[in-house]
Each structure stands twice: as C-alpha cells, then as structure tokens.
Amino acid sequence: MNKFLKLSITLTSAMILSGCMSGKMSPQQESTLGAQQEQQMLSKVKLIHSGQYYNAVRNVGSRIASVSGRPDFQWRYHLVNNSKTANAFVLPGGKVFVYSGLFKYASNEAELAAVIGHEVAHALRSHGVKSAARQQKAGLVGALLQVGMGVAGINKQTAQTVNKVYGQSATLGYIRPYSRQNETAADSIGLMLMAEAGYDPRAALSFWNKFGKQGGRQVPEYMSTHPAPASRIANIKALMPHAMALYKKSRYRRR
Ligand SMILES: [Zn+2]
Hints:
Strand content: 5-15%
Low-confidence stretches: 145-159, 165-175
Number of helices: 10
Bound molecules: zinc ion
Order of helices and strands: HHEHEEEHHHHHHH
Distance between the termini: 51 Å
Shape: globular
Oligomer: single chain
C-alpha cells in the first residue's frame, strides 16, 4: 500500500467515524463502513461454507432480504464456525453474521428467520450507526477519531495504527449494545419481515422462549440490553395477528 492510499484510507475512516458521531450517515457511507467492518471480521473468524446450517442461513437470508424493501443494500450472510456461541449480529449496510452455536436454539428455518429478521431490522433502522453516535457522547468514538486523524501524518506505524482503528471500529460495530428501544423495534420489524418472507411468525415465540431460558455467562447481542424475556414475548404476541395476516398472504406461500 503506498503512502497516498494509506492517507486516503485514513481520511475516509475519519470521515466515516465523524459521520457516525453525528448519527447521520448517507447510505453510501454506511455501506462503506459496513464493508470495512465486514473485512475486519472476516479476518478474525472462521466461516462455514457448506452443509445444512450454511444452506439454512443463505436461504433464510435471501428471502428476508427480498422483502426488506432495500434492494440497494448489499446483503451478506455469513455462518461463523463457533458452536459455543449462540449469537448473531449485523454490521451497517446489512452484513449479517450468524454463529453456528445459534442452532442450539434455532431448530428450523422459521426460528432462524426470527433471528435474521431481527438483525436485518437493525440494519434497516441504522441502529449500529445511531448507537455509535450515542457512544460518542461518552468520548469513545471521539477518541477513535483523534487516532484516525493522528495517523494521517504518515509514518512507519501508519499501517499498524490504521489496522488498530479499523479493529476498534469493527468492535464498536458489533459488540456495542443496542438500546432496549432498538431491541423492541428490531423484534417488531423482524417479525413482520419473517412473516412476509413466508416463515410462520409463531416460530419467533418458540425461539425467544427457548433462548430466554439459556444459562451460562454468554450475553448475545440481542440479550445485551435484555428486554425482560416476558416483555419481549408480550410485544411479539401483541403483534401476532398482524404478522399472521402478512404470513398468510406471503408470496412465498402462494408458490
Ligand atoms: Zn438486536
């Protein structure tokens, strides 16, 4: 990588982060940020590229994307080879990662669709970027931006530092807890998405019931701000008549 390319990447990164800070990013900026974070993640995790779980993720993912109303997003679905982690997350612009450990709770495609619908909803609502804006008030993203600008004065450590900045921004992108309000919105929108994609929305209840009972010290993304399982279930139940109506007229069921 030459100096000028490094400089331009650093500046792009700083500009994207400053977009994050205001909570207002163009779809293009979000897509660029998401693609960078995706590359960062892909260098850290081991993926599965075949088999039943892989096929399920791809199949459910493409159906949910098809009803997302955002064909301009570059939807991507990755299955991470980690059976100990029951987790899933999404990066800005629609890059979804599902850990194989999630299949301990998702027993069929409809239950998987509850999770993927939830993650896709976060991306549609730009929750990742908006949460970064909130974090900026705590100075975290601001500090990252300083680092980003600092390395614009090219030196030997530039590449290393840029990598570090990317690493931190990727971390911000996926482990940052969403607010409880965002979680509820993602549940609600996700339920409608799965129904429209032809997956029985009642599977969301069975999934979250099983998932809510999980023990251990894992705190998956969607549990991180833990809407109490009871209130999550109550919200989903209240929306069920509407979801069932969408499900019944889903184009995927009329085939
Ligand atoms: Zn969530």
